Amino acid sequence: MEKIKIKSFNGYLSVAVHRPEKETDKLAVLCPGFLDSKDYRHLVVLAEMLSERGYTAVRLDPTGTWESSGEIADYNTTQYLEDIKTVIDYMNTDSKYTHILLGGHSRGGRMSVLYAARDPRISLVLGIMPSSSPIEVEKREEWKRTGIKISKRDLPGDPENYREFHLPFSHALDLDRYDTLGEAKKITAPVILIAGELDETVLPQDVQILSENICGKKKFVNISNIGHDYRHNEEEIKVVNGIISEQINAIEI
Question: How far is CA 252 from CA 108, 125, 178, in A?
Answer without folding.
Answer: 23, 12, 30
